[in-house]
Amino acid sequence: MIISILFAAFGLATASPSSVIPRARGTESNLFPISGSPRWTTLAGASGSLPLSNSTLRPTKVTNRCPFSYKNAPDGTFSLKSHYPKGSYKPSVDPCGGVSFYAPGPSSVDLSDAKEALLSYSVFFPSTFEYVKGGKLPGLYGGNDENTAVSCSGGRKDTTCFSARLMWRANGAGELYLYLPPFDDPRFAANEKLCSLPNSICDASFGISVNRGSYSFPAGQWTTIAERVKLNDFGEANGEIELFVNGESVINVSGIIIRDSSAGRIRGIQVQSFFGGSSTDWATPKDQDLYFANFGAAIIDRI
């Protein structure tokens, strides 16, 4: 208060609330907590940084009903802006909210060659964000070919694909949200261990919520995500998925089956975000936005 009065007395400008929001806290160390090569990033100032654009992400299977744009976040960070109109929840209903597409990223880093890969990005939840019951956030995906790889979401489970998205939940609680080969098939019984992890829920109709509340997405701040996926050897339960938040490992699961054959590959980023959930009690009560920046990926180990 005293500082503000002094500034006013001398005719000096004070910073607006939006100008003092910390910049996207993505640094190379928390975007890439594990080294890998080749890699790419849209982090401004990083060596070889690429523009955050369609030419870098190379979107496919875009849900055009839910348009996205590239805009500055409230702190001025150039971002992919995802808009959620009042009343929106899942992308298949009106009004359509959020963003949904699949992104292989630059051809110079072919994730289908990876046995183990890392995805990174930063996400900004505005200070007035209302979380409601939760919603989806991007993660790695894969499968036995390009077409089947996009089949594991929205209640569709299959042995030939996987997705490893994130979710925010009520009050900003975070979790890993997985579609893996279903454990009710005896070949993939090892995946049932996920159900017994702390604060984890196996939904018979949808995905597996892993370690809900092990981290959070605070409103008014950037949160930096790095997700590591290591494919299992065919016929072995030795797959791994690890999640880093702001450079710290918060979830680490191992001994799981991610693919059902040697054809299974990591295919890219499932850039998807919406409120939901598949019923109206998940819907946003007002127009809202999220901002995504610092996308990147790296190959840690090759097939």
Automatic annotation (TrEMBL):
Signal peptide segment: 1-15
Keyword Signal attached: yes
Pfam family membership, one: Polysacc_lyase_14
Keywords: Signal
Domain (Polysaccharide lyase) ranges: 76-295
Cited InterPro entries: Polysacc_lyase_14 (IPR048958)
Stored Gene3D superfamilies: 2.60.120.200
PANTHER family the record matches: DISAGGREGATASE RELATED REPEAT PROTEIN, PTHR40124
The protein, known as: Polysaccharide lyase 14 domain-containing protein
Organism: Agaricus bisporus var. burnettii (strain JB137-S8 / ATCC MYA-4627 / FGSC 10392)
